[in-house]
Amino acid sequence: MKRTQIDAAWQGTAHCEDCGIRDLVLFADLTEPDFNLIHLPIDEIAFDTGATIYSAGGDGATLYTIRSGLVKLVQYLPDGTQRIVRLLKHGSTAGLEAILGQAYEHTAIALQPTQVCRIPRQVVERLSRETPRLHTQLMQRWHAALRQADDWLTELSTGKAPQRLARLILQLMECDGSVTLLSREDVGSMLGITTEHASRTVAEFKRSGVIVETGPNRYRINVDQLTSIAAAEG
Amino acid sequence: MKRTQIDAAWQGTAHCEDCGIRDLVLFADLTEPDFNLIHLPIDEIAFDTGATIYSAGGDGATLYTIRSGLVKLVQYLPDGTQRIVRLLKHGSTAGLEAILGQAYEHTAIALQPTQVCRIPRQVVERLSRETPRLHTQLMQRWHAALRQADDWLTELSTGKAPQRLARLILQLMECDGSVTLLSREDVGSMLGITTEHASRTVAEFKRSGVIVETGPNRYRINVDQLTSIAAAEG
DNA sequence: CGTGAAATTGAGCCTTGTCAAGACGAGTGG
DNA sequence: CCACTCGTCTTGACAAGGCTCAATTTCACG
Question: Are B185 and B217 in contact (CB under 8 A)?
């Protein structure tokens, strides 16, 4: 409830040919002439933590490439309960359903300061019509999303709370063996448990030394122990 | 454990132009000349209940269109527990990941006598290269799968067992207001609960008259009551 | 220093898992 | 035709896990 207005800022118009993370993104396979087909500006936008990138039900006019940061996709049930169905990291594409002219199915919210490229739907449509090089990338994006969805279900919604949490932490782990955990509420919403239970389970992990707090909501991980918790028993 | 060998039977080679459910399937938008690009046979195959259509890890040489019947996609965790991640009905496409040259990610098993068309990966690749009319359909297939995966998570893995079961029954409901339920084990594996608990919850529904048994594992549904259970309380 | 949101903790209750026993049904062999 | 067998479904009793509600604590921010 801070200044919820000034939470997104225009950063400039992208020059995709020179994109620093181009080999990661949707346009990875495009050749130089392909870029001439882009006739609408692709904007770079920065979002603060907590800012909404797009909302479920909003007409999908643009899709997004995450340049940096972390984004949650939230789905709401009729009764108001919410569930985080996916996390997007740098290189991921959000709002793919826009290409099909559909409304957004999720609400996308930044969990960290996040930079995105906003790609108008028409750009993708035109490229899709005129160059085959985008197809494979699009398929791979769909495939990656689907795979993540399936894994999310089997890994984070199956088994008891400690197992699920262990798997989540391993997923979030950075290469140096540490994590920045999310708010307890978000953790609960990912694992399908209550906020309180998420808090308790994290606390247990801390007490047993499986994770060690090194900063505000930041932990060093005991990978072996976590792996064995994730696998089966408590 | 009956004759597990003779559970699939070749039914003939399909003539897609004359397909009876063509407006439902992947090739819906193709025009007459497009069909000349199909240079490999598309076989029709029938599977008995319980037969495996393809297995996780198997190299994805073909994708499948479900013509009739019901198929479960099962995903296994390292520790052996399994989870049903999706159900496929007639018109659905299975094994889309084959187009990307990937191994199958799930095991597909027929839950009822099921007829499928087996489409060699090369056919889709060629059509995909030469006609744009397949693209939209492919996107829509990916999209439908992803949407189903997300809904599965929010509806069938969120809330208490009776809510989940109610939502499942409503999903399975046929137009005449009846359902053929699956084995208790499969129900449990879809809802993320044990077989016993699935059995108990179904039994409660029967006792309270929310569903009425009309045949072997077949029920007439009280839609209003089920809807209110699905929405919130018990 | 006060305020409010998030995190933690405790206690009791409800839900679900576990283990084990029995019931039912279909297929098999005598 | 009957007994036997095997798998699935059902049910019970108990234990464990997770939820609810409420009280505190912590911490960031004004």
Answer: no
* Spatial distance between the Cα atoms of B107 and B100, rounded to a whole number of angstroms: 17
B66, B120: one domain: yes
Contact B217, B181 (CB under 8 A): yes
Residues A11 and A127 in one domain: yes
Calculate the angstrom distance between C1' of D19 and CA of A198: 12
* Last residue within a domain, chosen from B153, B173, B195: B153
> Cβ distance B97 to B60 under 8 Å?
yes
Distance in angstroms (rounded) separating the CA atoms of residues B62 and B98? 6
Three-class DSSP category at A63? strand
Mean pLDDT of A91-120: 96
- State residue B6's pLDDT score: 54
Consecutive sets of 10 residues in chain B, 234 residues long: mean pLDDT of each? 58 88 93 91 94 95 96 90 95 96 96 96 92 90 98 97 98 95 98 98 97 95 96 65
Same domain, A73 and A166: no
Instruction: Please say if the pLDDT value at position A233 is more than 60.
Output: no
Q: Which of B153, B175, B196 is the last residue of a domain?
A: B153
Q: Considering only CB atoms, which chain A residues are within 8 Å of B161? A: none
| Same domain? A183 vs A143 | no
- Both B76 and B183 in one domain: the answer is no
Q: What's residue B78's pLDDT?
A: 79
Same domain, residue pair B128 and B181: no
Which residues constitute the domain of residue A44?
Answer: 3-153
Question: Which residues on neighbouring strands pair with residue B115, listed in sequence order?
Answer: B46, B68
User: Do both B102 and B209 map to the same domain?
Assistant: no
- Is the separation of the CB atoms in B73 and B85 below 8 Å? yes
Instruction: Supply the CATH number for residue B16's domain.
Output: 2.60.120.10
Tell me the nearest-neighbour CA distance from B3 into chain A, angstroms.
31
Contact A158 B192 (CB under 8 A): yes
CATH of the domain at B208: 1.10.10.10
Indicate if B42 and B149 belong to the same structural domain: yes
The distance of Cα B49 from the centroid of its chain, to the nearest Å, equals 13
Q: How far A65 CA sits from the closest chain B CA (Å)?
A: 18
Q: Which residues of chain B neighbour A79 with C-beta distances below 8 Å?
A: 231-232
Asked if A157 has any chain B CB less than 8 Å from its own CB, the reply is: yes
d(CA B16, CA B25): 10
Per-residue tokens: B187: 């129900």
User: In 3-state terms, what secondary structure has residue B180?
Assistant: strand
- Cβ contacts of residue A233 below 8 Å, gap of 6+? none
Q: How far is the CA of A193 from the C1' of D19 (A)?
A: 9
**Residue closest to D26, CA→C1'?**
A216
